Amino acid sequence: RVILVAADDVAAAVARAMIGDAAEVIVEPFGDIWLRDTGPVIVRAGDRLHALQHRFNGWGGKYDLPHDDSIGRRLSAARQRGDGYHLADVACDWIFEGGAVDVDGAGLLVTTEQCLLNANRNPALSRADIEARLHRDLGFDRVLWLGEGLINDHTDGHVDNLARFVAPNALALPRATEANDPNAAIYADAKARAEAMGITVVEVPSPGLVTRDGRIEPARY
User: Fold this and answer.
1) Which residue in 150, 107, 147, 104 sits closest to 127, CA to CA?
2) Which entry of 19, 132, 159, 196 is 20 to 30 Å from 95 by CA?
3) Cα–Cα distance between 15 and 194 in angstroms, integer?
């Protein structure tokens, strides 16, 4: 079942005309489309579903758009009214975005220091504090900390641009194939950190140097 969120009635009408019965369209105002980051994180606790409502600050204050700091709670409330889900809101006392992490389905989580330890997210929290919250909120008992994300990534190093799990304890990472690859050192550092933790690394070729108007783009597959 697919639920598509439209920001207003005009967008909802266009969506319904395009997709027909392929998805349910609901209207809830938002600023940016990335519900992975602004929406709730749904976890199962026994026979109940919990909607984790983390704080959101526009990716470190760079994109502070109306309604993005409340869309998660509104979507959760709409689902409870519409479907009778046993969905309980859980307020989480720190700034977090779903795109900041990836998981292997077996207790292992990967993130970057650039994002989750960034002073524009949770300046008062240490690495140990962040790990404790990841365990408390999401249940993960192992965290792989990579260093920097891709150059010029406006999310401050969301790990999904750099690394993704493809199986339990198996991480896909780019490999530089050209001498001018701007992220070569970042890829090498990520591989070293993963292998030092006993994680299998599966390498894929990097897109290499990609520029737009003279600016290095955070290109990835």
Assistant:
1) 147
2) 196
3) 42
Continuous segment of H or E residues that includes residue 113: helix 113-116
* Residue 77, pLDDT score: 86
Strands 24-27 vs 3-6: parallel, antiparallel or unpaired = parallel
Residue 184's alpha-carbon distances to 111, 179, 188, in angstroms, are: 18, 8, 6
Q: What are the backbone angles phi and psi of residue 132, rounded to the nearest 5°?
A: -65, -40
d(CA 54, CA 41): 8
Q: Which residues contact 41 (CB under 8 A, 6 or more apart)?
A: 51, 52, 54, 96, 98, 137, 138
Cross-strand bridge partners of residue 175: 205
**pTM (two decimals):** 0.92
Question: Which pLDDT score, from 0 to 100, does residue 86 have?
Answer: 64
Per-residue pLDDT tens digits for 9-63: 999 999 999 999 999 999 999 999 999 999 999 998 888 889 999 999 999 999 9
